[in-house]
Amino acid sequence: MSGGTSLQKDRNLIAVIGDEDSVTGLLLAGIGHTNQQQKKNFLVVDAKTALSTIETAFQEFTSRKDIAIILINQHVAEDIRELIDGHNQAFPTVLEIPSKDHPYDPEKDSVLKRVRRLFGE
């Protein structure tokens, strides 16, 4: 078995950064997890959440070896756009999702921007 495969097999969690409704829905779907160091794989963001808290959570989730996917509400992703655009690793994959109050805008999605660049659009 190759070294890359063994690194990927330990990535079995989905992390989420988003508004209360999005995070609650995903927790009810079963993605919630707290590891042995009492670190959670989710962050609820509201109007009072400091930008530094969001940035720290994103950096922590991208450095963890047990997270395969990070789901982030697109309106929250806009606040930390430079961090998201700077993340160029395959794992964890960062996916922007809509929220109840903020519709999805494909023009803002960093993944779609990269795909368009790849295809020369």
From TrEMBL:
One GO cellular component, as annotated? proton-transporting V-type ATPase, V1 domain
Q: Which Gene3D superfamilies match?
A: ATPase, V1 complex, subunit F
Which is one GO molecular function term here?
A: proton-transporting ATPase activity, rotational mechanism
Keywords, A to Z, come to:
Hydrogen ion transport, Ion transport, Membrane, Transport, Vacuole
Compartments annotated for it: namely: Vacuole membrane
Which residues does UniProt assign to the signal peptide? none
User: Does the entry feature the keyword Ion transport, yes or no?
Assistant: yes
Claim: Ion transport is one of the keywords in the record: yes
Membrane protein topology class: Peripheral membrane protein
Q: Quaternary state and partners of this protein? A: V-ATPase is a heteromultimeric enzyme made up of two complexes: the ATP-hydrolytic V1 complex and the proton translocation V0 complex. V-ATPase is a heteromultimeric enzyme composed of a peripheral catalytic V1 complex (components A to H) attached to an integral membrane V0 proton pore complex (components: a, c, c', c'', d, e, f and VOA1).
Name the family the entry cites: Belongs to the V-ATPase F subunit family.
The record's function comment reads: Subunit of the V1 complex of vacuolar(H+)-ATPase (V-ATPase), a multisubunit enzyme composed of a peripheral complex (V1) that hydrolyzes ATP and a membrane integral complex (V0) that translocates protons. V-ATPase is responsible for acidifying and maintaining the pH of intracellular compartments.
UniProt-recorded name of the protein: V-type proton ATPase subunit F
Please report the organism this UniProt entry assigns to the protein: Umbelopsis ramanniana AG
Q: What is the lineage of its organism?
A: Eukaryota, Fungi, Fungi incertae sedis, Mucoromycota, Mucoromycotina
